[in-house]
Design brief:
The protein is α/β, with parallel strands linked by helices. The chain is about 40% helix and about 15% strand. The chain has 14 helices and twelve strands. The strands form two sheets. A seven-stranded parallel sheet has the order 8-7-6-9-10-11-12, sandwiched between helices. Strands 2-1-3-4-5 form a five-stranded parallel sheet. The longest helix is centred in the last third of the chain and has 21 residues. The protein is globular and about 75 Å long. The chain binds glyoxylic acid. The site of glyoxylic acid (GLV) has 6 residues, from loops. Glyoxylic acid binds next to loops.
Length: about 325
């Protein structure tokens, strides 16, 4: 497909940065592009985003901006959307590919940091860390008792991983090598024998994973196929002593069903970094003691967020200046350009 450039020949490409970002990233982008930023981090409505995207060749997005057929039809000049996230369920990739718009994401740079956080959430959930801290801060710690905040063991237990991409493998390595856990996983495709050996992980069916895991971590991408992959029926298969950790995406877990299961103590506890319809959180989760909640921060360390922002910006430069993006999601677009 050919693109309207809507700018005079030789003019610098125009780029929209949809959210506030490190100032040095804006500076880098300004070396190459005419940049409209949102350093005030205003909450743009969809209409506003669409209006601002008109006439831009590139967009720096952060995972919250939906790029679909409607946006693409309204913005025929658009050539690339660079997501500052590894997940890209805010992109309609089929529509972007059909419109000849390149999509990029930020894999690899966040793998280890996100795996660290998955493990932190698992530990906090199994050992009731936030619940006990709230108790202490509320001045309720009057005396020690034998079962005070007694949780579940992590070391030596069975770690289940649903979704065994790079982050899932990072969590498996931490569990197997650091905590002597037995690792089982389920994934759309099985890992190579070499990778399985490196992660000390055994492939099992989803049912077996649910039944056997002491701690189940979700690290699969969100798609219509993974919507409510964990609902009431799946939770019913889990052990009453099991924990469930979601660092993947809201919508993979049926949050209403999970809240009910946690209330009825059908599983021991959950750790959630992502929520259906976030930043709203299902009200049934908010007043439960046996759930650890965090606001979608699994990749949030200063060096990693900077590396993600750099990679998104580098993708814009590499593609709009040199025609060679670094981490394309739909490289078919390049073959047609
Ligand atoms: C964060 O959720 C990401 O996809 O990078």
């Amino acid at each position: 497909m050919t693109h309207d450039t809507d700018s005079p020949p030789g003019a610098r490409p125009r780029v929209l940065v949809a959210r506030a970002i490190f100032p040095e990233i804006i500076e880098t982008l300004r070396k190459h592009f005419e940049v409209e930023d949102n350093q005030a981090d205003e909450a743009w409505s969809r209409e506003e985003l669409l209006a601002r995207l008109k006439g831009k060749q590139g967009a720096f997005t952060t995972g919250g901006e939906r790029i679909d057929a409607e946006v693409l039809a309204a913005c025929p000049q658009l050539r690339i959307c660079a997501n500052m996230a590894v997940g890209y369920n805010n992109f309609d990739i089929q529509a972007m590919t059909a419109a000849g718009v390149l999509a990029t994401n930020t894999p690899d740079v966040l793998t280890e940091t996100t795996a660290d956080f998955g493990f932190a959430l698992l530990m906090a959930t199994a050992r009731r860390l936030t619940e006990s801290e709230h108790f202490l801060r509320a001045g309720r710690w009057g005396k020690w008792s034998y079962d005070m905040f007694a949780g579940q063991d992590v070391h030596g237990s069975t770690l289940g991983i649903l979704g065994m991409g790079r982050i899932g493998q990072g969590i498996a390595r931490r569990g197997a090598h650091g905590f002597g856990m037995k690792v089982i996983y389920h994934n759309r495709s099985r890992l190579s024998p070499e990778l399985e050996a490196e992660c000390k992980a055994s492939y099992v069916s989803k049912d077996e994973l649910l039944r056997r895991a002491d701690h189940l971590v979700l690290v699969l991408p969100y798609s219509p196929q993974s919507h409510h992959a964990i609902g009431a029926a799946e939770i019913a298969l889990m052990k009453p002593t099991a924990t469930l950790v979601n660092i993947a995406r809201g919508g993979i877990v049926d949050d209403a069903a999970l809240a009910q299961a946690l209330r009825e103590k059908r599983i021991f506890a959950a750790g959630l970094d992502v929520f259906e319809g976030e930043p709203r959180v299902h009200p049934g989760l908010l007043d439960l003691p046996n759930v650890v909640l965090s606001p979608h921060i699994a990749s949030a360390t200063v060096p990693t967020r900077l590396a993600m922002a750099r990679l998104a910006a580098d993708n814009l430069v590499a593609f709009l200046v040199r025609g060679e993006p670094l981490t394309p999601i739909n490289p078919q677009v390049l073959a047609r350009a």
